[in-house]
Amino acid sequence: MSDTRIRTALVTGADRGLGYEIVLQLLQKGFRVYAGKFNDEYSLLDDLKKDQPELVPIKLDVSIYEDIIAAEKIIREDSGYLDLLVSNAAFMGGPRNDAIGGEEPVDYDLLRFSFNTNSAPAPVLTDVFLPLLLKSDFRCLHFTSSEISSVRLMKRTGGMRYAMTKTALNVSVRMMFNQLRPLGFRFRLFQPGWMKRMLPDGTLDPRARLDPKQSAEMAVRLILEERPDEDRLALVDYLGNELSF
User: Fold this and answer.
1) Region at 14 (left for phi over 0; alpha for psi -120 to 50; beta for the rest)
2) Is 23 within the bounds of a domain?
3) Does residue 1 sit within a domain?
4) Domain count, the chain
5) What gap in Å lies between CA 127 and CA 125, rounded to an integer?
6) 141 falls within a domain
7) DSSP secondary-structure letter at 232?
8) 207: domain range?
9) Is this prediction's pTM over 0.70?
């Protein structure tokens, strides 16, 4: 790749929180960033665009295949290549009706939506964008996972829906790693920690432990740094610690 060619990144789930902060930091590092917008309640990306010519907000609901195809077309026609894919979009909320024998039956539609947002998009995005990624020598794939994805460490009885989907994500990343690492792809599987929720005006809900900016700093650091053991897939948290998965 020419030294003068700007690096490009696609970040899904970029409306707020971790995704938004990753967008900010990639822009500061000189990337052209295609930022996936999902939640119309948030205008942070639109406001940021006024001062950031290398930011391209795009409509992207990762649970809708047509949105992914449309995003690929935008990037292909605009840049013609992609250096970095950050698969970050996730659905954590919804009613707590995922317990076996709970007061309400398990909501199958919500469970399916969670898989279609948290798990299935990772391999689909990678497959759709593979031709553009192969045009790069950077070839980095970043996936936002969770500490509750580990089967070995699982002690919880609640929050089954989210945990299941992140475990499925890890399996897909492992299989993609097996296939694509020989082609020079670098993989980042990241545990961002319990982050404060970002509100529509950009302020943070005081509940939770971590400012999304802190987590994003580690995520971008891991993306940009070459690991000495790239041939080994690792789940790394916001402190740089490796976790069992």
Assistant:
1) alpha
2) yes
3) no
4) 1
5) 5
6) yes
7) S
8) 8-243
9) yes
Concatenating the DSSP letter of every residue in 62-109 gives: TT-HHHHHHHHHHHHHHTS--SEEEE------S-S--STT-SS---HH
Does any domain span residue 99?
yes
100 contact partners, CB below 8 Å, separation of at least 6: 106, 160
Give CA angle at 215 (129, 22), nearest 5°: 40
CATH number at residue 201: 3.40.50.720
Q: What is the pLDDT along the chain (245 residues), one digit of tens a residue?
A: 445 799 999 999 999 999 999 999 999 999 999 999 998 899 999 999 999 999 999 999 999 999 999 999 999 999 999 999 999 999 987 888 888 888 888 899 999 999 999 999 999 999 999 999 999 999 999 999 998 888 887 888 878 899 999 999 999 999 999 999 999 999 999 999 989 888 888 888 888 789 999 999 999 999 999 999 999 999 999 999 999 88
- For the chain, give the number of residues: 245
**Residues 6 or more apart whose Cβ sits within 8 Å of residue 235:** 145, 149, 150, 170, 189, 190, 191, 242, 243, 244, 245
Is the Cβ–Cβ distance between 57 and 35 less than 8 Å?
A: yes
Write out the two tokens for 152: 């070995």
